[in-house]
Specification:
Order of helices and strands: HHHHHHHHHHHHHHHH
Strand content: under 5%
Radius of gyration: 21 Å
Structural class: mainly alpha
Shape: globular
Helix content: over 70%
Length: about 475
């Protein structure tokens, strides 16, 4: 790729890195925020959950908006909004201010991330170069989260407000570079059929996603308030059914339902949901194990988990070679199998395990992420028409956000249920941790079984030969440097 092609990719990767460190740093800083602002437990939990709700609720709309209104426009606009509300979060003096800021930041990410992904899939020629670009993009996302844990631990020592201000400084540089490098649409993106924007579809889609995401987050409370949880999920499913009915009749649907007939895309989205859910659920429980049972500080815990960031190195170096040699499906399956081995190795964790005993699992978990997540991203967008790349990116982002919510909520619910029936001793608490750690293992087993269907009838699964420079291949879409 040319220098300009790499520069464009680095700008887009900077955005997903920004998103990763933003989430990771806040997860480390929540205890300090709670103590400083004297927040109750429920409010502190919503500081994290509000972002997930905003993100999961609007990714589908965000993906389609990129297709209809312009990818560059959506990317720049919502990156600026992301930075604005992150700044407001740093000045928050009340819990509700933080919750509002985090929700709005999640909404901004829901529009920004699908736009960034669709810029990649439309600026880089389908084949090895697009695959490499997507693998670098995915690796950067994981690396941002892993490094964000350490950076968050360091910044929290200076003051938790820096966890909000630091991303603004990085994001400002990305925004300046993006104004120069992002491809300009040659002409306005026209809506299909020339009809009006599918407002009814947008409202029902956002409502359904918000309710379903809220229902999943409420699973953390176990059986407490289960009737409310069931009612919320039922309402979300009803709105989802209404959305499908609206899309079938709309002359310009928000999501063309025919896109869901592409089996490889649906399989990739479901696989991403299960894999990301298992990854975040496992990481959440390991963090609790190290801090609550072992008494490690937040910085010590963050440094211990840095090894999981191996995926940031392996995703752009090793994974492309494996994809070219064996194909997406086999590499994805290998990633799921490696994750199964990794989680099973950690199931017998004890109260006195050394870091050396934990190291194989932590390294294998990062390696499994490098093998699975990037190729899942490729599979979720491969073969999709250019005018629907935003929708494909939105569907993938929706799946990953729901996955993270499901993973964390499920392990929290299992842990709380088992711990409630224990005697409160360290051994009883450890049993609750072990029970919760079985959840990620079950999720990756299910994902491996799902992925195995993609292996049927495949040869080596190699991808096409190298193509010309992706930016040059889209002549007229990228301004000359």
């Amino acid at each position: 790729m040319t220098r300009r092609a790499w520069a464009l990719l680095l700008v887009l990767c900077g955005t997903i890195f920004l998103e990763g460190i933003d989430v990771a740093m806040l997860s480390v800083a929540v205890p300090s925020i709670r103590s400083d602002l004297e927040l109750p437990t429920g409010t502190a939990a919503w500081v994290m959950s509000a972002y997930v709700l905003g993100y999961a609720g609007f990714t589908l709309l965000g993906g389609r908006a990129a297709d209809l209104l312009g990818r560059r426009r959506m990317f720049l606009t919502w990156l600026a909004i992301f930075l604005g509300f992150s700044t407001l979060g740093g000045f928050a003096t009340e819990g509700w201010m933080l919750i509002v800021a985090r929700f709005a930041t999640g909404v901004a990410a829901a529009f920004m991330t699908p736009a960034a992904m669709s810029i990649i899939t439309t600026s880089y020629e389908e084949g090895p170069q697009r695959n490499k670009a997507l693998l670098v993009f995915a690796g950067t996302a994981a690396g941002g989260f892993s490094l964000g844990l350490v950076i968050g631990g360091l910044l929290t020592q200076l003051g938790w407000r820096w966890v909000f201000f630091a991303p603004v400084l990085l994001g400002g540089l990305i925004l300046i570079a993006a104004l120069r490098l992002l491809p300009a649409e040659a002409r306005p993106v026209r809506r299909r059929g020339g009809g009006s924007f599918d407002l009814a579809g947008a409202v029902t889609a956002a409502g359904a996603m918000l309710l379903l995401a809220y229902g999943i987050v409420r699973l953390e409370h176990g059986f407490d308030g289960w009737r409310t949880t069931a009612a919320v999920v039922a309402a979300g499913l009803l709105l989802a059914a209404g959305f499908v009915a609206i899309e079938r009749r709309s002359p310009a649907p928000l999501v063309r339902l025919g896109i869901l007939r592409k089996a490889s895309m649906v399989r990739a989205d479901l696989g991403a949901l299960l894999f990301v859910g298992s990854f975040f659920g496992f990481q959440f429980m390991v963090t609790l194990y190290l801090q609550e049972l072992r008494g490690w500080s937040s910085l010590e815990t963050a440094l211990a988990l840095v090894i999981m960031g191996a995926d940031a190195v392996l995703a752009p170096t090793l994974t492309p070679r494996l994809v070219n040699r064996f194909g997406n499906a086999r590499v994805i399956f290998g990633g799921f199998v490696l994750a199964i081995v990794s989680y099973v190795l950690f199931l017998p964790v004890g109260l006195d395990w050394s870091y050396a005993a934990m190291l194989p699992t932590l390294f294998l978990t990062g390696t499994a992420f490098a093998l699975a997540y990037g190729p899942l991203t490729i599979a979720a967008t491969d073969g999709i028409e250019e005018k629907e790349q935003g929708v494909a990116g939105g569907l993938l982002a929706t799946a990953t956000q729901f996955g993270s919510a499901v993973g964390i909520s499920a392990v929290t619910a299992v842990y709380g249920l088992v711990a409630a029936n224990g005697d409160g001793s360290p051994e009883s608490t450890l049993s609750a941790f072990r029970a919760a750690l079985a959840v990620p293992a079950v999720m990756v087993v299910a994902g491996a079984a799902l992925t195995a269907f993609g292996l049927r009838g495949r040869g080596t699964g190699g991808v096409r030969a190298a193509t010309p420079d992706p930016v040059a291949a889209n002549a007229g879409t990228v301004p000359v440097a």
